[in-house]
Write a structure and sequence with these properties.
110 residues, alpha+beta, 2 domains, 4 strands
Length: 110
């Protein structure tokens, strides 16, 4: 995500001048950023997957290979999974699910 840093300086009698203020504020920002945990920004998408009960176990085992997580599960005549995963993994996972179910899985973008 994006980061906004606000540095507040209460006048304490020390005149830093323009250069001193820039250094002080810069040092404050560096200290904050050094403590910040960062992670790559990944675009996420949602897939709806309908599959027959016998395919559930095999399909569930595929999900970690594509960094997919189950957001919701609905058990009716078939199983409907709502999956969240990185955009670049959507097409490969859809193909793998169809393969694992011999074409029985129906995959659509939500």
């Amino acid at each position: 995500g994006d980061v906004v840093v606000v540095v507040t300086r209460y006048f304490g009698g020390t005149l830093l001048g323009t250069g001193g203020l820039v250094r002080a504020y810069g040092d404050a920002v560096k200290a904050v950023l050094a403590e910040l945990h960062t992670a790559p920004k990944v675009e996420i998408t949602t897939l709806l997957v309908s599959l027959p009960y016998p395919s559930y176990g095999a399909c569930k085992q595929l999900l970690p290979l594509y960094a997919a997580t189950i957001s919701a599960e609905e058990f009716a005549t078939d199983i409907t999974l709502t999956l969240t995963l990185p955009v670049e993994q959507a097409a490969p996972l859809a193909e793998a699910l169809r393969e694992a179910t011999s074409g029985a899985a129906v995959v659509v973008h939500a």
